[in-house]
Amino acid sequence: MIRYIDDMQLTGKRVFIRVDFNVPLEGKRITDDTRIREALPTIRRALDMGGKVILASHLGRPKGPDPKLSLEPAASRLTELLGAKHEVILADDCVGDGVRKLVKDLKDGQVLMLENLRFHKEEEANDETFARELASFADVYINDAFGTAHRAHASTAGMVPYVKEKGAGLLMRKELEYLGGVMKNPAKPFVAILGGAKVSDKIKVIESLLPKVDALLIGGAMAYTFLKAQGIEVGKSRVEEDKLSLATRMLEAAQRLKTALVLPIDHVCSTEPTDKGEVREVPDRAIPADLMGLDIGPKTRAMFSEHIRNAKTVVWNGPMGMFEVEKYAAGTRTVAESMAINKDAITVVGGGDSAAAVNEMGLGVKLSHVSTGGGASLEFLEGRELPGVKALETKQ
Ligand SMILES: Nc1ncnc2c1ncn2[C@@H]1O[C@H](COP(=O)(O)OP(=O)(O)O)[C@@H](O)[C@H]1O
Ligand SMILES: O=C(OP(=O)(O)O)[C@H](O)COP(=O)(O)O
Ligand SMILES: [Mg+2]
């Protein structure tokens, strides 16, 4: 059983809320604040119930303290969203004596935001001493970081047993209820679309998705590992060399199951992954040696669109290209638009970056559900138990 924040007594208690404020940034500018806005109901609820709120999140994948990945922009945005009634204080670390003092001095109605958890390698290592220190700041632990629930880290799993009371936030509940419902009996044809950059993380979910879906469309950086595994030249495109044999196994499994595993047949390329490079359309599956694939090409867009328009359930994670640069956004836009116009289908998109893309295109409101989790929603949809959710289970 999982308790939820609205059933808990929080008055005067220190409420530690693990949020996922891993928002897309351009320098210090947040390009999409969906994850912050989606956590607001839980934060407001904790404040309204008289709790002293401590927020903790990671941002990016730093290898130690890195000012470019400070949570300062997120703290500023939260200050604006919460309004004048509440003060948001940003600590300069997430553990240590300074933080302990800030926690001790925290007043009702104030929010203390800890600095990026991943500035300490102990967070991802799920180090016990680090986990116990985080736990020592809290009377109540709430997890509202659905987007990070697939990670067994100190702040999502390790610290939980050391806090007196534990529960889930309102965003976590919304995500689990919605995504749980989608998978109960998905209407067919069921089409899944995978892309993005976190190839090694996400490639492993394909095995369990294949038997469930009618077609799996692969774009984004994920596609080139699959093309290369088929012996097709991919030039300078991003490839996860150590996943080539896994990709081959997936291609064989798809054949065995008679599930369509659809890969790009043309590409939009350049010599470099920035907005500076010249755009070169490549009309074939193979990519010349000096180029890298940065978006799916027009023939692939038409093919993917056709699959999506005929589907009754569509689940999508991962942009089709480097959509942050407009000249590589067409593939991602086509997928988003094809989902938006299919009114007969349940359409779900997940992921920090995918959600940013659909919201920037103004299409998020036209989909059935925009999830804050990419990797997390994929692992949940495949039926895997999420460590961040498991940690919240109580006996009765
Ligand atoms: N072909 C590509 N080459 C390089 N980067 C890509 C490519 N396709 C997609 N990306 C990048 O993938 C990133 C998002 O990946 P990911 O984090 O896995 O997705 P999500 O956050 O939606 O789960 C984006 O920043 C995008 O620029
Ligand atoms: O952005 C996230 O996932 P996503 O890119 O799959 O949406 C989460 O914050 C998890 O981050 P991580 O993949 O660095 O552990
Ligand atoms: Mg992402």
TrEMBL record:
Q: In which pathway does it act?
A: Carbohydrate degradation; glycolysis; pyruvate from D-glyceraldehyde 3-phosphate: step 2/5
The annotated subunit structure for this chain is: Monomer.
Q: Does the keyword NAD apply?
A: no
One Pfam family of this chain: PGK
**What are the record keywords, sorted?**
ATP-binding, Cytoplasm, Glycolysis, Kinase, Nucleotide-binding, Transferase
The source organism is Archangium minus
HAMAP family recorded? Phosphoglyc_kinase
- Gene Ontology molecular function terms on file: kinase activity
Q: What is this protein called?
A: Phosphoglycerate kinase
